[in-house]
Amino acid sequence: MRIRLTEVGYTYPGGVEALNGVTLQIEPGEQVAIVGQNGSGKTTLAKHLNGLLRPGAGRVEIGDWDTCDHTVAEMSRRVGYLFQNPGEQIFKTRVSDEVAFGLTCRGLPQDEIKARVHAVLERVNLASQYDTHPYELLPSQRKWVALASVLVLDNPILVLDEPTSGQDSQGMARLGTLVSEIATEGKTTIVITHDMDFVADYLERVVVMQHGQIVSDGPKHEVLVRTRELERSVEPPQITRLAQGLDLSGQIVKVDEFLKAYSAVSRRPRVWNKTEIRH
Ligand SMILES: Nc1ncnc2c1ncn2[C@@H]1O[C@H](COP(=O)(O)OP(=O)(O)OP(=O)(O)O)[C@@H](O)[C@H]1O
Ligand SMILES: [Mg+2]
Questions:
Q1: Candidate from 16, 85, 195, 234 with most ligand 1 atoms within 8 A of CB, to mutate
Q2: pTM across the whole model
Q3: For the structural domain made of 1-78+158-220, what CATH number should be given?
Q4: Residue whose CA is closest, atom 25 of ligand 1?
Q5: How far is the CA of 243 from the centre of ligand 1 (A)?
Q6: CATH 3.40.50.300 in the chain, residues?
Q7: Are 154 and 120 in contact (CB under 8 A)?
Q8: Residues 6+ away with beta carbon under 8 Å from 151
């Protein structure tokens, strides 16, 4: 299902112009990162994808649907949206009820709902928290509850608004594995994040936003290595900076790419002979 935004503009009721002339096309199955400074319009853009916000100007199309012609409930069958703040999303008093909510709204049989909730809680490592109140969990775990309630819907498009925030290195790795799995299922994944290493490791295309506009858009190996341009909006990956500082050739955005390029140019470790050791 193709996503197409055409010259989208949006101004909040208070007068802040959050999006201005945004044109973007995302093909089915793409793995896209949306990055940019705080307040650059990432969340506003994300909320246009599932109809939570309607464009003040231009059009937003998800497959053959114009978001202006469909309710949020209808849109939620095509686009799963993880809120930046899980507090905006979670409202049930049991983890399992929270995760089941969307399926219950769809009127699925109880047996199927139960099986899908169990499976997704296993997947996000929360099986033991089935009956727990979401607010008894750590904020980082609450994010996983919110994520589970999106994943369980099995939508063709997933929009994850800052899933990496508040996650420790283990959580990041699990999130990365999950994003990779979703990719193999052929779904479209859009991840908003400030973590450039996560972008480099797990996503393919990078869209950079600034002041409500898209200022750069392309494959990660092209966008992330334009460090001068990028650092006007976000911190480029450390490994890319290091590679450029060492004048290594190639488009290096990941540690394994760095090691390959570095070992190709560095001399083999010197083997000392016995005479040298004695002196
Ligand atoms: N509900 C709102 N009412 C008025 N202005 C808002 C509202 N939400 C966001 N804005 C403003 O719109 C602009 C874009 O905000 P948005 O939340 O889309 O940015 P963002 O890129 O997601 O930022 P962050 O990285 O901090 O999440 C900002 O100037 C912000 O202050
Ligand atoms: Mg945001």
A1: 16
A2: 0.93
A3: 3.40.50.300
A4: 38
A5: 34
A6: 1-78+158-220
A7: no
A8: 80, 120, 123, 124, 158, 178
